TrEMBL record, chains A, B:
One of its GO terms (molecular function) is pyridoxal phosphate binding. It comes from Paxillus rubicundulus Ve08.2h10. One of its GO terms (biological process) is alpha-amino acid metabolic process. PANTHER family: AMINOTRANSFERASE, AROMATIC AMINO ACID AMINOTRANSFERASE, HYPOTHETICAL (EUROFUNG). It holds the Pfam family Aminotran_1_2. Its cofactor is pyridoxal 5'-phosphate. This is Unplaced genomic scaffold scaffold_358, whole genome shotgun sequence.
Length: 542, 542
């Protein structure tokens, strides 16, 4: 089966209605039969809904001082930290270095078509406000270029809500969902209560492996598994959580074709899409980067599954959590119109439309920035995250001997793997018993917020008190010691799909470090603490 | 069984854990085992979560011009419309008559403990921001005075979300939920997809009837019904939607006692609580009102079920939709801590914490107003709705002959019922064939937004072309004719619990008019249109 990215007219989408769950088939709110066509008619007086008068909304207007799209540089600064957050924290009222632009959202704007609080704060259908819907439609069509033209865009309160609704729409109790072997725990937590089980697929340096996917689906034995062959996939293709892996175009095409062959709906959870970076280059080899323009930036991004989706079997989940703020609680589905209609019905009986304060503020900022400005903002963010990734690996390089070597697990095949050995002497000033030996390994990610996630493999089998039975206990001791000394990292076991399903080990020997939040000075301090704790931990028990 | 509102120590709550659904028992996110105690320690560097740095939130600050708590008068104005909304619409930029106070929410406030955008816009637990949680706790304890002291308060995205989560927590497929015979359609739409059926209980002028509740529960035949005896009740006790009825303290106590006897959890959906009013007095008999103070206002409100809840079996749903704005998408549960913990887990896999823009703005307005200011705001709102209720009934009184008479249905027993007859001649200028005969009846509500909802009974059996079979068709013709002439009202049948369950007629002959939204001039116009359409409709087919 071949896929196309060319301009030829795509074939008609296949009928996917057999994928709707029992829950989804039944779900729906009775419309006011025969009267709906009248809504919105000019001059109509509606006494139908329980809507308060906007006169009783206690807001005259909201004014936002928003950063300008050019707030962050397009190439990494030679000397980080460039983030100004430490500066703002110290001098909260001194805005000397912030460049902002002010936008106001009045209850009743004088300009027709302007964002209007009286509307945004009222009840509405469980869809986006008009201007936001229009912005998203334009954005999706320019940036993701879906192959099928009549895709629908439906707002939600972020990707957690999005995935939860997708599960309810697509899955019946007792079914399975294909996912990466390491995955986002909350996504699995949405499924388990309804007895919908994760079906882990092996990963490599590019994320979910197409060969393992084909193997699992082609050899599926429903009787032995006591589960029908899965028809839904949950996948985080870019800056994968927790592994940090990013999928190539070729791999995506292979996976898409397999999903067509076995009639699988793909739910593409892609919050880190705009945090794609160039490869990590060690500090001493790094040369000043040249800024790329918007066109080249967009062309450099791994294409969404939407780009190949000639059968309309992709539900893409986008969010403003990583590009504006998590507290926006704003995201959106891009999918076929049948799915969108069912997902909207689910919104009507749960969240309704996302918060009007959030919608109006985000919309107004985006409209003020314009599409081009938002792309500029995203390019700046990408640079910031590049700088953060580079900085933390540079810190590891300062504290440890980092050497490139062969990948030590299948998950890293094809990746440039760094092995870290102790540089300094033991805490008791003698030669450390592990001097010169690899203590952990890592792979620099090319997208997202996470360092190697499970890619940092603690070589606990090197620990003097190691026995396979003691492994988890030992690892937990290390995490506790790190926390005691002031650093919290996420243990790898919480991301194991098999462990979450209760069908596998908790797989010790991994953890995930996120470089997205801490100040640069804290990142540096954390790596120093990590080195000291690790050195002491392995020495004291030897 | 006796209930108490006195100061004596309440008995220990009963164990309600057997009410948790299968879904709820399983639902939960794995914590970072053994590491949670370290979170929040001063100086801790956390590299655990996928949190973006607040430096990347593109907001320096948000400034809100909020109406002052005294914006609306405490007694009805002698000459409505007093609402300024028409004024603002026409002269959006002229703020001469608006009294506002400005509040600013900076990303990094200089005052410690101030509302902080850097925190509100970040990921958080699925709970309220600290200052909001504190405000709500104080508010609930002062206003509702829950009998059990250790009640929990948990934020949600409004009562639709709240009820949906309560259903998931309490009900398994195949079970039933006790509810008013006329009820909020969205509440039933949340249940039906999971095969959870409404079990309608008869109503009277005070809402759900305790005698019918006792009858249904005491005579429950699980085999005949193919359903176990319901253990959950959904109830809208104040300004009921759609009927407008408001429950007395005595009735609430009776219902609470029956729910204890049959081990039923009460979910009290109470969005109209603060829109409680005095009785309607015809215009010509109305005398100027005296404003009551805050203490008397609160004492005048029908007590929440929380007030009697010695067994912790009440889940109260509150919302800012009717008191701030629907677009806030902010509400909260008040319930026992076991329920609250399960409901929080559900939030973690769906909405997460409600929108940070909404939370920070609503919080900042409330803190600026203070508790006393918010109570003042609510007293003003109550007066506005009183004025709106009085105004629309006055309009009916101008267009029709309104006469007090005996209630015409069981639902109205105990209520002052107004019967409306045509005042004017027929459209063809002759005497109307229905001149002097009751064409519809209504009961003025003492709370909420709705005029008698199903209490307006269209006496379609008076229509010349009436046959029982034609009734719905005839009624639909009338609604279409009204819409054609510019007025939309909500047909009663959409609120029938029996009809939604597929187990009853669609019960024509009712509709719900909300007087909450339209301008006063439009309310007046709508009633004139209603009179004209009704007159014509009955004349033309005679």
């Amino acid at each position: 089966m071949s896929t196309t990215m060319g301009p030829e007219k795509p074939p008609k989408p296949v009928d996917l209605s057999h994928h709707l769950s029992e829950l989804s088939k039944a779900r729906g709110i009775s419309p006011l039969k025969g009267l709906q066509k009248y809504f919105g008619r000019p001059g109509l007086i509606t006494l139908a809904g329980g809507f308060p008068s906007p006169a009783y909304f206690p807001l005259a207007d909201i004014t936002v001082n928003a950063l300008i799209p050019e707030s962050f540089a397009l190439v990494p600064a030679p000397h980080p930290p460039s983030s100004l957050s430490w500066f703002w924290k110290l001098f909260g009222t001194d805005k000397a270095k912030e460049r902002t632009s002010s936008v106001t959202i009045p209850k009743y704007p004088t300009l027709p078509g302007d964002v209007k609080l009286a509307v945004c704060l009222q009840y509405s259908e469980a869809v986006a406000q008009g201007q936001l819907q229009e912005f998203l439609r334009h954005f999706v069509s320019k940036v993701y270029q879906p192959l099928i033209e009549d895709h629908s865009i439906l707002i939600d309160t972020g990707n957690t809500d999005g995935w939860n609704r997708a599960v309810m729409m697509l899955c019946n109790p007792g079914e399975g969902v294909l996912c990466e072997e390491w995955t986002f725990p909350t996504a699995v937590a949405s499924m388990l209560p309804s007895n919908i089980q994760p079906v882990p697929i092996a990963m490599d340096g590019l994320g979910l492996r197409s060969d393992d996917l084909e193997r699992v689906l082609s050899t599926w034995d429903a009787d032995a598994r006591q589960m029908s062959r899965p028809h839904v996939m949950y996948i985080i293709p870019v800056g994968q959580n927790p592994s940090g892996s990013t999928m190539s175009t070729e791999r995506k095409k292979q996976i898409y074709d397999i999903c067509c062959k076995y009639d699988v709906v793909i739910v593409e959870d892609d919050p880190y899409y705009f945090l794609q970076m160039n490869d990590y280059v060690p500090k001493h080899k790094r040369s000043p980067e040249q800024a790329t323009d918007a066109k080249h930036f967009l062309a450099s991004l791994s294409p969404s599954f939407l780009r190949f989706d000639h059968e309309s079997r992709v539900i893409r989940l986008d969010t403003f959590s990583k590009t504006i703020a998590p507290g926006s609680r704003l995201g959106w589905f891009t999918c076929n119109s049948m799915f969108a209609e069912r997902l909207q019905r689910q919104g009507e009986i749960s969240t309704q439309a996302p918060c009007g304060f959030g919608q109006s503020i985000v919309t107004k900022i985006l409209l003020n920035w314009t599409y081009d400005g938002y792309i500029r903002w995203l390019r700046g963010l990408r640079t910031e995250y590049t700088q953060r990734r580079d900085f933390i690996i540079d810190c590891f390089s300062e504290e440890f001997n980092l050497q490139i070597g062969p990948p030590t697990t299948a998950v890293w095949s094809g990746c440039t793997t760094y092995h870290a050995a102790l540089k300094q002497a033991g805490v008791h000033n003698g030669k450390h018993p592990f001097q010169g030996r690899t203590m952990f390994s890592l792979v620099p990610p090319v997208a997202g917020m996470f360092l190697w996630a499970s890619y940092i493999k603690l070589h606990l089998d090197q620990h003097p008190s190691y026995t396979p039975e003691r492994e988890e206990t030992l690892e937990m001791q290390l995490f506790v010691q790190l926390a005691e000394d002031g650093v919290i990292a996420a243990p790898g076991w919480v991301f194991s799909a098999a462990a979450m399903a209760g069908s596998g080990d908790e797989t010790p020997g991994h953890f995930r470090i996120s470089f997205s939040l801490a100040e640069f000075s804290d990142l540096q301090k954390a790596v120093k603490i990590f080195e000291r704790v690790l050195r002491k931990f392995f020495e004291e028990q030897s």
